[in-house]
Amino acid sequence: MDNTKTEALITYLATAGFTGAKLEADLHNQIELMAPTFRITHRLPFDGELMSYELGFTMDHQFQAYRLESYKATHRNVIDIDYTTLAGIDTAALEERMKLYDWDAYFDAKITDPDFRDAIQEIITDLDKIARDAYLDGSNIRDLLVFKYWPEKMLHPNVHNELSVAFERSLEFRPSKTGITSAGEAFVLTSGRLETLFEKLNRLNLEDRFPEVDLYPQLLKSMAKGTSFGLAFRSGNPEGYIELSVPVSKTGNDFNAAHYLVAYTSYPAIEHGTFNGIDTALLEEKMGRVDWDSEFQRVTMEGEGDVVIPPATEEIMLALDQLKSDPAGIKIMDQLQLKYWSEADYFDLFVRQEAWDYLETLPKKEQRFPVELEATMGINLLTGKAVAKDYIIKGLGLKESGDWLRLDLTAATKNDDPSYISAGKFARQEIEEQLYMLPLSMRVGQVQQLMKGNRITERLMGGRMIRIDTLPEQRTLQLYTEGNRPIAFNFSLDPDWTPVLHDQQYSLTDQTLRPKTLPANKQNRHRGKKRGRGI
Asked: What angle do CA 20, 21, 23 make, to 5 degrees?
């Protein structure tokens, strides 16, 4: 075969992590034989563990070149041997001698140096001696040593079968449209480390807050690099901007994540007014009624790439554009676009760079949380919301306490675990009873979402949409319109009840209750900060 094609194959293998002089030599030797198919064994050590890759090649007659058709990856765990002295032979020193030689080459008669061959034969003799020792340990140690260093073809089938079950795991890989699984990826897959870390971090339910998260392949790519790494996610909503990071450390061959960090940038209240004929308070109410997460799906293309935007949305965009001609209005335009468009597909492109710069100047609150706490609850706590204690602190028993907690925001820190303060009592049964008072259909998960501090959106039987969350200090649900205007509702059926005109939410600065109207807690997607062009 053309040597250029061989070098191209070697380059392709290198991109997948299969490199080494022995591999290249074996490849050249096999290609010279011009067999229709052949297999090569490639081994890589991983801190006491071993990966064996049985690479299968086939001749592609269309291109007159060999290609990697598939490979079998076998991971071998660390083989710990209880060393001792048997038949006068120090078994620890015996293993050190075995490490010095290429046993594949020896059994393939590729070692011709007589001194080397004599030294290897002496090792084989010592292995036989310890196997014949009166103690059973001798046979066990001998089997472990040969299993660890000799090629499979030289092992007794019973020895190989028994020990491979105890120490090895294999998986088959084939090229796909996106390429071949790399050597590093095969290691974290066959060793079980990917599954271990994925199961741990999957409990965070990151996709609840960051819908575009695809955790498994992201972990696979990161872990395959063989170093510590971090995962980072962002999500904008009308209340503020959320950043969540998960540091993953690597010790030896193991990966671990113990905490995640949430950073929250709260948007300041907008000083609404009328600018260039635009009532910004009314404009924000209109923007709050739009589900910007999915609005892009209603944008269509016609003719030669002409963008067609739904009339109501186009009206909002034109109103925002009118604000640009007023110095005070353009500031409000930036604030509104950050609140509603920062993570909305297509519309995020219109957010000006000046708006992103403004976001960086706002104060940021940070808190570290253990990975055992779902990400959404950590975010809710840092943004001032209350969460049922039973969802925060595990192991309280089967009977729910009814207690609620808020994060002690005065003690929030990115370096320490969270500190909590009481938010009163609001039992599950009370929440259910209040939901039953509303003309809506009860469904699985409603109460659970509320107890996790989430604001839920529900359709009333007449078709109207409302939003619901909790205020456990007052043992009541709170209702809002789609535009997040408070809806007064007397759940206590108290004739002397006075409506609460404003949402009661804990301040991020003074930890005291104060009136504060907050828009919906939307869950937006993130693709990184944009350098917008503005409208």
From this structure: 65
Per DSSP, what are the bridge partners of residue 7?
A: none
DSSP string, 44-77: EEETTEEEEEEEEEEEETTTTEEEEEEEEEEEE-
- Helix, strand, coil in percent for the chain, rounding step 5: 40, 25, 35
Whole-model pTM: value is: 0.82
Nearest alpha carbon to residue 238 among 152, 327, 341, 328:
341
Contact 68, 8 (CB under 8 A): no
C-beta separation of 220 from 189 below 8 A: yes
Residue 518 CB neighbour total at 10 angstroms: 23
Nearest alpha carbon to residue 247 among 221, 227, 225: 227
Question: Per-residue confidence of the chain (535 residues) as pLDDT tens digits?
Answer: 678 899 999 999 999 999 999 999 999 999 999 999 999 999 999 888 999 999 999 999 888 899 999 999 999 999 999 999 888 899 999 999 999 998 988 998 888 889 999 999 999 999 999 998 766 678 999 999 999 999 989 999 999 999 999 999 999 999 988 889 999 999 999 999 999 999 999 999 999 888 889 999 999 999 999 999 999 999 887 889 999 999 999 999 999 999 999 999 999 999 999 999 999 999 998 998 888 878 887 887 776 667 888 899 999 999 999 999 899 999 999 999 999 998 888 899 999 999 999 999 999 999 999 999 999 999 999 999 999 999 998 744 456 789 999 999 888 777 888 999 999 999 999 999 999 999 988 777 899 999 999 999 998 988 888 999 999 999 999 999 877 788 999 998 989 888 765 444 444 433 433 333 333 333 333 334 444 444 5
Q: 263 φ, ψ to 5°?
A: -120, 135
* Burial (Cβ within 10 Å: 0-12, 13-18, ≥19) of residue 115: exposed
Pairing mode, if any, of strands 89-90 and 364-370? unpaired
3-state secondary structure of 233: strand
Number of neighbours of residue 519 by Cβ within 10 angstroms: 21
| Residue 380 to residue 509: CA distance in whole angstroms | 16
Asked whether 108 and 163 are in contact (CB, 8 A), the reply is no
Rounded distance between C-alpha atoms, residue 297 and residue 232, angstroms:
26
Within 10 angstroms of residue 238's Cβ, the number of other Cβ atoms is 21
Question: Taking Cα atoms as reference points, which of 244, 190, 242, 189 lies closest to residue 219?
Answer: 189
Let me know the angle formed at the C-alpha of 409 by 405 and 414, rounded to the nearest 5 degrees. 110
Q: How far apart are CA 145 and CA 266, in angstroms?
A: 62
Distance of CA 279 to the CA centre of its chain: 42
**Which residues does residue 59 pair with via DSSP β-bridges, in sequence order?**
66
Q: What is the DSSP track for 457-514?
A: EEEBTTS-EEEEEEEGGGTEEEEE-TT--EE---TT--TT-----S-EEE-TTT--EE
The answer to whether 291 touches 502, Cβ cutoff 8 Å, is no
